[in-house]
Write a structure and sequence with these properties.
heterotrimer, A: alpha/beta, N-terminal domain of TfIIb, Rossmann fold, 5 domains, 7-stranded mixed beta sheet, 6-stranded mixed beta sheet, B: mainly alpha, Formate dehydrogenase/DMSO reductase fold, 16 helices
Chain lengths: ~725, ~450, ~270
């Protein structure tokens, strides 16, 4: 076959070749690697400091502001708490700022309490209404009928509020607290004389045995907990710290720990004392510490050896005797070991903390330390404060009981600042009834939440990005951090500064009250407080400084009169436990996902996606059941079921989870709002509805002592 | 076969000449309503996005894709019978070829639109041609199917030309208004030897091309799944398995439709038990062949013990998909096999049931291929069970109604039998057109 | 029979030309791999990530940071019920039980940014592609929503917008201006915060220098309180990410599939 060499053929072949080689290249350039679009030009871009007030930790954030709008969040580099990072909640702060259901102005209940008929009022009107109520109380010489329930946020506004209560003459000032994210403060107080400044030296620990505290998810300062864990794992190449988690459920902390010991809910105290028994029986405890620094040791020892043999403890807690011995061995061979627990029942708190005394971990690095940092908080210039005439009507969690017990509420005017006890407390139902009996309620809240629904007026405060911020936070290193941030954006709506509002009221009330709170605005008072420490520059630009307050030595931790650590054997009588009950076969264990730490966060859509990541659960309430237990009841994975306790029932999706005991089921806390905007209202169920609403001897509500049954439709 | 050619012509043209009865109109109306419902459901889906389906993570493809594969499978009826049998000169094909080709032409538009229905952005369909990416099996598929569609239409039409001429000549008296169209479609066919020779060679070439296309189309449909690394999809056998499955289904569809057409249009003279018997044997062979492939596929998976593959294997055999899996086996193989293994009994009825059974079975086969692997990818974020939404079912019903409707209309426009082929000297053993042409050549 | 011969010759000629043309065309069009390797050889960047599971606490600050940075949909109960909430980075949970011993791992999973991505191969429109620095991109305006890439991804790390994402007016204000907001019917995925790379490059260019380690930081890395995420240039042997990638604890997800992920995990323990 000979090809004719003609011009035509040549052109034809050349055409083929050119097309064959250039076309693909052109196509590849155009088609296979699309051009990257250049980013939009930004007229202005800045990174502004901000304080996150979504939880009491008060981390410092950096907000990316483009063309005057906040559009991005990161942690503030160098800030001792944040160190450039943030927790999930902090990351979602812009959703809080731009929540479509934020209140846009003060509102007043038009109908009867709880009628949900609201009308707009001005801040001046709100001022006048409150002024009338307060003057009326003063006129009747009943200042103690005013009560203030404040958020546990350490800033100058909080101090203004507290001083207002003091000079007004009411002892009824409470700070909200969330016991599941707190250390054993009651045990600290009883045993050390004061809980102030005591902290676990987690970041440097050698062995952490957590008795029921899901500390990676519930911690006073979530960012620090995550960082501490990371440091424990890899910061020191020579050793990887051992972490033991004792919990009824394979929580995130348990999953990340080296060992998970499954235990019956609310029996961690027994286990701790079982370990104490082994320590004393085998003579493994720190005799030096016990002899020199404790009081009541002999009594304690006798009681333990009499009551808490490992066999008995094993029977109660469901933990094998071998494991109890093993924990004791570990706690003496790895020194110093710390046993940690959250603010659960007083019994558990004391039991666990007494272990720290037995292994000599108190007042030593890597154990329990004390810090002086608290006293570096900014203070208001001093003023004459009268002594209260009476004592507070009750402690925080006993308020509803106290109000419901009396025929007429001792509180006539309640002032709530960013707290939502009706939703957040296991005694929610009692709180609701109690609030309904109070004459007049003012709520400072950015949303109409469950408690504000019962209020008479709701005053929306500025968002933390809309106003000057100051905050004080102690760290896990024992430092005290003072942080400032100027407003990032001007207020979006007709909101007010609650500090300014109180100062305005004080001024109008006049007299002693006005002279104790003489400033025009909250910022002025802040400036005054800052002048004392000569930090005006930092305040203006936003920034922080830190005080080192950590001190080791046993002595510094002990503030009892005897100067010794008290071992209050009397308090170690275990409270009554629910007996096995055939009609309610399961223990209920309530856990709090980090997304909803402190019980809050369900109003932010991004946080919903995190809550049940271990099961792929989001935007609903699920109940974790062991597959074997579920199969016995014929409950399928993913089926909707009822969870019923003697006190109530809720609906949840049953999820088979191998990380839960067969005799226990677990529900997450944080969902099930009946108010608070479109992203939380009507989504999921609130497990607090299942609880008895009782308080422990510690004064804290009881979370984990209820039994439930589960059934399908 | 004592009937004369004029009998064939007369009887075959009856449906075209007669005004359709009430039954036809009622059926057409009902089908139109269902089809319209499907179109409305699709409009609703276009407006709201695919969130109106039951799909989600990790079940990304659902019954739209099943229907796509299903309609492509039905379309195999025509090509298979007429192309393969024409090439192999099987004489019994003659009674079926036209109906078979009609099925192909009427089902393909619905197959193609199923894919468009499944797209998140149907408006951007042409991006596939604007930014073609050669390594994507979807691109191959689009090329294959569009070629297949064009060629099938051409094949159908060329086989139709002599019959169009017949209609032009014989139906002019009836005056139904179709005559100009017939005249136009007949392309001035006179039936000369030259024309016949050209016609014959065109048909032969097209048969061969179509045969190749039919294999490539269904192999490519299989490739869409086989070319991913998804457990349960990634298999070398999936291409041929799809071809065999489609052949089985196509033959099933043909059997059922031929029985129905024969009943409605009284073609008992021309489609006889002998024809059906030949169909039966072919059907039986394909069912066995399909079963063989199924065994090969599952046995290989079972012996591989690849963990993610085994999860799907057990999910099909004993897990949540067991119902569809075992129903598939029964309907695709057991029922047709039991019905067709002997000639005894009511053959026509048996073929009808076997055909329907194979079709339902093959729909379930596609379900078993697409849905269970979708539910368990390598890394999974929980598996909410997939249940198609009302929108998906409505569109499915609409598309099936549309297919039947279009086929019904075709039966009233085009002759149901290939008259020119039937007219050829009928020889049970080796009746080919060649002899006729040769004879005429001799005469000429 | 001369005519026939002529036909055959013609046929062969045309056939040869066609085969040659197709070969030339395909050999270049399919040569995506070769060119990328050339890019690596030329010493350009190849971005990668190391996630240390021993440091990771499963807190999911990264998940939120990623959502905020990339304007990800808000989600809701209806979407959640069908697994339609889009999070480019999410936790892959695995609970394994052996007798009474139960282990659970919580693995943060962004797009694994494969060197040989199964998703780009199957895309009919090149809407998903790999850029010269190894980032697997997605062109929303080109995507036809066939979800083939989603099916092809063994990590299930590509996401389809089943409906129009709902953004109440207020929630649109804090949109990141550097990231386009997606709409119904298209697929989206983690792009290693590609917009941050562009900004970092612009900044480096303004300052008249080359891009350095630490200029380009992804949102998830920045947020991580446990410092479990390290990001950088795998082509730079001095970078921390390269150093960590060589750790004895390192592994890749589904390595056996040959996708060559550029997200590298470090084992616990």
């Amino acid at each position: 076959m000979d090809l004719e060499i003609s011009r035509r053929n040549l052109l034809k072949w050349a055409g083929f070749l050119v097309a064959g080689f250039t076309l693909p290249k052109a196509i590849k350039a155009k088609v296979l690697s699309p051009q990257e679009k250049p980013l939009p030009r930004l007229d202005s871009e800045a990174h502004r400091p901000a304080l996150c007030k979504l939880c009491p930790a008060l981390c410092m954030l950096q907000i990316r502001v483009v063309n005057g709008k906040p559009v991005g969040v990161s942690g503030m580099p160098g800030h001792p708490l944040s160190q450039g990072a943030h927790c999930p909640k902090g990351g979602a702060i812009l959703q809080d700022l731009y929540h479509p259901d934020r209140l846009r102005s003060p509102i007043r209940q038009r109908g009867t309490k709880g009628s949900a008929q609201w009308e707009k009022i001005s801040w001046d009107q709100a001022h006048q209404i409150l002024l009338d109520k307060l003057s009326h109380l003063l006129k009747r010489n009943r200042p103690e009928a005013l009560a203030i329930l404040a958020a546990p946020i350490r800033d100058i506004r909080h101090k203004i509020q507290k001083r207002f209560a003091q000079v007004f003459g009411t002892p009824n000032f409470w700070e909200w607290n969330w016991s599941l994210a707190e250390g054993p403060l009651d045990a600290f107080r009883l045993m050390h004389g004061s809980s102030e400044g005591l902290f676990y030296d987690l970041q440097n620990a050698s062995l952490i045995v957590s008795f029921g505290w899901d500390w990676l998810q519930s911690f006073p300062s979530p960012v620090e907990a995550q960082r501490a864990f990371s440091e424990l794992r890899r910061a020191r190449p020579e050793r990887r710290v051992r972490i033991v988690q004792i919990e009824p459920r394979l929580s995130t902390t348990a999953a990340k720990a080296d060992e998970w010991i499954s235990i019956r809910p609310d029996t961690e105290g027994f286990l701790a004392l079982g370990v104490a028994y082994v320590l004393m029986d085998d003579n493994l405890y720190d005799k030096n510490f016990a002899g020199r620094w404790t009081s009541g040791f002999e009594e304690y020892r006798k009681m333990i050896l009499r009551e808490y043999s490992p066999e008995k403890v094993s029977e109660i807690s469901g933990v094998k005797t071998k494991q109890i011995v093993e924990i004791a061995r570990q706690m003496t061979s790895i020194k110093p070991a710390i046993g940690i627990t959250q603010r659960s029942s007083l019994f558990t708190q004391i039991a666990v903390h007494s272990l720290n005394a037995l292994v000599g971990s108190i007042g030593v690095r890597r154990g329990v330390l004390s810090s002086e940092a608290e006293r570096y908080q900014l203070t208001l210039p001093s003023a004459a404060i009268p002594k209260p005439r009476t004592a507070p009507i009750a402690s925080l969690h006993e308020i509803p009981e106290r109000i419901l017990a009396s025929s007429q509420s001792p509180i006539e005017l309640l002032w709530m600042e960013r707290v939502n006890p009706v939703f957040l407390s296991p005694q929610g139902a009692q709180w609701r009834k109690a609030l309904e009996r109070i004459g007049f309620i003012v709520s400072f809240s950015p949303f109409i939440d469950e408690s504000s629904q019962i209020a008479d007026i709701i005053l929306p405060p500025h968002h933390s990005l809309e106003a000057w911020q100051y905050g004080f936070s102690p760290t896990l290193q024992g430092q005290g951090i003072i942080s400032f941030a100027p407003p990032v954006v001007s207020p979006l709506y007709d909101t007010g500064d609650h500090g300014d509002f109180i100062l305005g009221l004080a001024k109008s009330l006049g007299g002693r009250i006005a002279s104790a709170l003489p400033w025009e605005s909250f910022v002025e008072s802040l400036e005054k407080a800052v002048q004392k420490v000569r930090a005006e520059e930092i305040m203006k630009k936003g920034g922080w400084w830190e005080y080192v307050g950590e001190s080791s030595g046993v002595k510094s931790t002990l503030k009892t009169q005897t100067g010794k650590l008290a071992l209050p054997t009397g308090e170690l009588k275990p409270k009554g436990r629910d007996l096995p009950d055939a009609s309610h076969p399961f223990h209920l264990y309530i856990h709090v996902p980090l997304a909803f730490s402190f019980g809050e966060g369900a109003h932010l859509p991004y946080l919903h996606s995190l809550a049940g990541a271990h099961l792929g659960e989001q935007w609903e309430t699920w109940v974790e059941m062991h597959p074997a237990a579920a199969e016995k009841l014929g409950i399928r994975d993913g089926q909707m079921v009822w969870v019923e306790s003697p006190y109530g029932k809720i609906r949840a999706r049953a999820r088979h989870y191998q990380g839960i005991r067969e005799d226990t089921v677990s529900l997450p806390f944080g969902l099930g709002h009946t108010a608070m905007g479109r992203y939380s209202e009507g989504i999921g169920a609130n497990p607090a509805d299942l609880l008895a609403g009782r308080t422990d001897k510690s004064g804290q509500p009881i979370w984990q002592a209820v039994r439930v049954k589960i059934y399908g439709d | 076969m004592s009937e004369t050619t004029s009998d064939v012509e007369a009887e075959v043209l009856i449906p075209l000449a007669e005004k359709p009865g009430r039954g036809f109109w009622t059926a057409a109306l009902a089908l139109s309503v269902v089809f319209l419902g499907g179109i409305l459901a699709w409009s609703w889906q276009i407006k709201s996005g695919l969130r109106v389906t039951g799909l989600g993570v990790p079940e990304f493809w659902g019954i739209y894709i099943i229907n796509f594969v299903f309609f492509i499978g039905i379309s195999h009826a025509g090509t298979l019978i007429s192309a393969i049998l024409r090439i192999t000169r099987a004489p019994w094909r003659r009674s079926f070829t036209r109906i078979a080709e009609m099925i192909t032409v009427t089902s393909l538009p619905f197959a193609a639109t199923c894919v468009i229905v499944d797209l998140g952005r149907p408006d951007r369909l042409f991006n596939v041609l604007l930014y073609p990416h050669l390594t994507s099996p979807i691109l191959w598929d689009i090329l294959c199917i569009s070629t297949y569609m064009v060629m099938s239409c051409l094949y159908f039409y060329i086989a139709l030309v002599p019959d169009m001429a017949l209609c032009r000549d014989r139906l002019s008296r009836h005056g139904l208004g179709m005559t100009p169209i017939y005249r136009w479609l007949a392309l001035g066919w006179k039936g000369t030897v030259k024309e016949k020779r050209l016609h014959h060679s065109l048909m032969t070439v097209l048969s061969v091309v179509l045969l190749a296309l039919v294999i490539s189309v269904h192999t490519n449909v299989g490739f869409i799944f086989g070319m991913t690394n998804k457990p349960g999809w990634h298999s070398a056998a999936i291409g041929p398995y799809f071809v065999i499955g489609a052949a089985l289904q196509g033959l099933g569809a043909l059997s059922a439709i031929v029985v129905a057409v024969r009943y409605f249009f009284h073609l008992e003279h021309w489609i006889t038990e002998d024809h059906f018997n030949a169909l039966r044997k072919f059907f039986l062979a394909l069912a066995c062949f399909w079963m063989y492939y199924t065994c090969v596929e599952y046995l290989t998976t079972f012996y591989g013990r690849h963990v993610p593959e085994m999860a799907i294997f057990w999910a099909k055999l004993t897990g949540p998909f067991r119902l569809s899996f075992w129903a598939m086996l029964v309907l695709c193989f057991c029922v047709p096999f039991a019905l067709l293994i002997t000639r005894r009994g009511p053959l026509v009825l048996k073929l009808l049931f076997a055909g329907l059974s194979a079709n339902v079975g093959m729909w379930l086969e596609r379900y078993s291929i697409i849905v269970p692997p979708g539910a368990s990818p390598y890394l999974s974020w929980g598996t909410p069970p997939y249940s198609p939404s009302w929108v998906e079912w409505t569109i499915t019903a609409g598309w099936f109604a549309g297919f039947i409707l279009l086929f019904m209309l075709f039966t009233r426009i085009f002759p149901l039998l290939t008259v020119w082929e039937m007219k050829a000297p009928a020889c049970h053993v080796c009746g080919t057109v060649f002899e006729e042409i040769a004879a005429e050549e001799k005469e000429g | 029979m001369e005519i026939k011969d002529q036909n055959r010759r013609d046929f062969l000629k045309w056939f040869g030309a066609a085969v040659g043309g197709v070969w030339a065309f395909t050999s270049r069009a399919f040569a995506a791999r070769g060119e990328d390797e050339q890019v690596q050889a030329r010493g350009k960047h190849r971005w990668g990530m190391v996630i240390d599971l021993d440091r990771c606490t499963g807190c999911q600050a990264c998940v939120v940071a990623c959502s905020v940075e990339n304007n990800q949909m808000l989600g809701g109960p209806e979407e959640a019920a069908l697994g339609r909430v889009i999070r480019w980075l999410k936790i892959l949970p695995r609970t394994e039980a052996e007798g009474s011993h139960i282990r659970q791992s919580l693995v943060p999973m962004p797009c694994q940014q494969c060197e040989d991505p199964p998703c780009t191969r199957v895309c009919p429109t090149s809407a998903t592609f790999m850029n010269p620095e190894g980032i697997v991109g997605q062109v929303y305006d080109r995507c036809i929503g066939c979800r083939y890439c989603v099916n092809a991804c063994p990590y299930t790390c590509k996401f389809f917008n089943w409906g129009e994402p709902q953004w109440p007016k207020e929630t649109q204000t804090p949109f990141n201006p550097d990231v386009s907001v997606r709409y119904k019917g298209v697929v989206e995925k983690c792009l290693f915060c590609h917009q941050r790379l562009q900004r970092a490059k612009d900044k480096a260019r303004e300052e008249g220098r080359k891009i350095e380690e630490g200029d380009y930081v992804t949102a998830c890395q920045a947020a991580c309180p446990a410092q479990a995420i390290v990001f950088g240039d795998l082509n730079d042997p001095e970078s921390e990410v390269s150093r960590l990638a060589l750790s004895h604890r390192s592994f890749k997800m589904l390595e056996e599939l040959g996708t060559k992920p550029k997200v590298i995990y470090l084992r616990e323990g």
